[in-house]
Every structure is written in structure tokens, then in C-alpha cells.
Design a protein that fits this description.
The radius of gyration is 30 Å and the shape is globular. It folds into two domains: about 190 residues, Peptidase U40 (Lysozyme); about 50 residues. By secondary structure, the protein is mostly helical. The chain is built from eleven helices and four strands; from the N terminus they run αββααααααααβααβ. The longest helix has about 40 residues. Helix 3 packs across helix 6 and helix 6 packs across helix 7.
Amino acid sequence: MTVPQKILTIIGIATLSSFFIYAIQSETSHTVSAETVTENDYNVYALDMPSGLNFSGEPVPLDQPDVYERMDRELLVNTYWQSNGLLLVKRANKYFPIIEPILRQYNVPDDFKYLAVIESGLTQAVSSARAVGFWQILKNTAKELGLEVNSNVDERYHIEKATHAACKYLLKSKEKFGSWTLAAAAYNAGNGGINKRLNEQKVNNYYDLLLGQETGRYVFRIIAIKQILTHTKDHGFNYKPKHLYNLRPTYKVEVDSAVASFPNFARRFGITYKELKLYNPWLREQHLNNASRKKYIVKIPKQKVGNE
């Protein structure tokens, strides 16, 4: 072998050695990094079942294996649907102060505010069955409960009046079944539907009934949302008061005649038509016929002051 060949051989061996050492160091470095990432990465945890779960003071029989599993399912699904859960926390701060005093007025348990949460997500929702508003009330049921529903006005969108109507329905169900849990289930399946299932299956409480999936999950979903919204930190929801939603203060204006144009009406009070609708979603058109000269109370949001 010539001198140049020997020099090239030595250089080649040195290069391979350096590459091998670098590869070992890189692999070692990568392994350490991966372990660090695993320790700090997002993890999903099973949830401990809270003790003392109840709906309106009526205990959940968690000693029954199927009841335990159904409750566990709703806690998991609603805890790990984080974006929806955080939105519910924010909206609850905005709307629960409206709903809670009306429930108290009727002696309906406070837990029923969570029924409104699972019905509509505290939005003015419209279902495929045309149930409307926070309490998802059907048109005929609304009229039976004293709500006005027509092309101009739909009081199912009126949070206070719809809550009054829901309370009346719930009280009838409680009187019929003697149980707030069954009254909640009947809000979903109807009094007739629940009564039929109780008679067919020869039982007298919700947790012993074999029901379709929607009603079978219904009360468990309410209880899960109640647990999450009352123990937000325990379920991983972190926020500050500034993150929560709030309603602007309003004042009331009485309307007892026809209104030709609500956009013009809004301008008279220094607000936009959009703002008028946000606080009065029950006004369904840009005008009000009101041939009967019925008195309506329209909410007008107060003007913002400074950083309010």
C-alpha cells in the first residue's frame, strides 16, 4: 500500500469512528428527551366516582353496577369534552342568576338549572323536533303552559317566561310521580311515556327502568353537569373571573302598541337592532302587529361606561 493510500485509510477509519460516536450520543440524547416529553405530555386519567351523588336530594344508587357505569360514562364524556365544558361554565355565570330565583319561586330544586344546560347548552337552540329555547319547549306545550307563540312573538325564547313555563310542567310531573328524578326524566320522554314504562316494567323509580338511550342517559347527564359545574377545578377547568360571560345591565320599556320598525325603535334608545334582539330574542320579526294592544316589556341594555 502506498503512502497516500495509507493516509486515506486512516482518514476513513477516523471518520467512521466519529460518526459512530455521534450516532450513539444522538440516540442517548433522543432517549432522554423522549422520556422528558412523556412525563410532561397530556395525560388522560380515570375519574374517581364522587361520593354522595344525588339529584334534587334523591341519591344515585351507585351500588348497582349498571348505574355506576352509566354515571361514570357521563362524567368522563363531559369532563373530557373540555371546550364545551368551559363554555358551559362561562354561560352559567351569565344565565344562572336569571334562572335560579324563578326555580326558588316555584319551590323547584336548584338542580333543575342543570336540566336547562343539557337541553340547550344555555343557548336559544332549535331542535330537529322544533323544540325551542333554553328549555326546549314544543309549540303546543308552550301554548298549554301560557306562552305566546306566533310569527311576531315566541316566548319560548324569553328566558324568564320559558323558565316559569318549565317550572309549571315540572311541578305537574312531580305531583304525578312523587319523584324529582322521574320528573326530570319525564321532561325528556313526556309524562305519558314515563308512566307507560313504569307500568309495563312494574317498577317505581328511574334507576330501575329500562329506557331508550336518550332518556336512559338523561338524568345521568344532568348529574354529571351538576358535578362538573360545581367542582370545576377538580375536573381540570381553570379560569379567572374575567373569563366568564356577563349580561349588561338593562332597563325596561313598556310597549302597548304596534311597532312598525324595531331597527328604528332600537335607534331611539341609542342601541342597534342586533343589541335589541340579543336581549329580546322572543321578538321574532322586525315589527310588532299587536292589534290587541297587549303590554310587552322590552329590555334595553344600558350604555357601557368606561371599561365596564
